[in-house]
Design brief:
Radius of gyration: 19 Å
Strand content: over 45%
Order of helices and strands: EEHEEEHEHEEEEEE
Strand order of the largest sheet: 3-4-5-2-1-6
Number of helices: 3
Length: 167
C-alpha cells in the first residue's frame, strides 16, 4: 500500500497573498480542512497548511512560505498528497486507492470475476466498476447484500453475484 495518497490538485491562485485553490479528491472538501500538513512530490516534500476553508466546493488554502500570488502560481497543477498515518478510518471504510486493482471474487464459487477498476460515489451507495477478463465493465452496487467481504490483505473483494450482473 502506498504511504502517501493523492488527495487533491492545486488549480490556481486565490487573492493576492499566496492562497491557492485546491480541487479536493476526497469524500468532501471539508475533510481536507482537518490537515495541518500535506505533501508534494509523491510525499517527498512536506508543506505546512496555516489555514484552509471551503469555498464553492473548492478548498482555499494558505501554505506556510507561500506569500504572494507569484509564489502561489508556481504551485498550479501540482498534486497534493496526504500521509495515510494522519487519518484514522472508521471500521469498514477504505481509501479508494487501496481498492483499485483488487480481484473481485464470486463468494459462492470462488471464481475470479474481474478487477476492481474504479469506484463511483452516487449518493445512496458507492458503485464498484469491475473490469472483466474480456474487457467489459460491470457495475456492482456496494450494498451488504452484494459486497460480502473486502480483504486488502488477500487482495480481493468477495461478492454475491446477483442474477444478471455479469451476463
Amino acid at each position: 500500500m502506498k504511504q502517501f495518497l493523492e488527495t487533491g490538485k492545486i488549480t490556481g491562485t486565490h487573492g493576492l497573498k499566496g492562497e491557492v485553490r485546491v480541487q479536493p479528491w476526497a469524500d468532501s472538501p471539508e475533510f481536507l480542512t482537518e490537515f495541518d500538513e500535506l505533501y508534494l512530490d509523491n510525499g517527498a516534500r512536506k508543506i505546512v497548511i496555516t489555514s484552509s476553508r471551503v469555498h464553492k466546493g473548492m478548498l482555499i488554502m494558505k501554505i506556510k512560505g507561500v506569500d504572494s500570488i507569484e509564489d502561489a502560481d508556481r504551485l498550479r497543477n501540482r498534486i497534493l498528497y496526504m500521509n495515510r498515518d494522519d487519518v484514522e478510518l472508521e471500521d469498514g471504510a477504505y481509501f479508494i486507492q487501496d481498492l483499485i486493482g483488487l480481484d473481485v471474487i464470486d463468494d459462492d464459487t470462488g471464481e475470479r470475476l474481474g478487477t476492481l477498476a474504479d469506484v463511483s460515489e452516487t449518493g445512496a451507495n458507492d458503485v464498484y466498476h469491475v473490469r472483466t477478463s474480456d474487457g467489459r465493465e460491470v457495475l456492482i452496487p456496494v450494498i451488504p447484500d452484494v459486497v460480502r467481504e473486502i480483504s486488502l490483505e488477500d487482495g480481493c473483494v468477495r461478492i454475491f453475484r446477483m442474477k444478471g450482473l455479469f451476463e
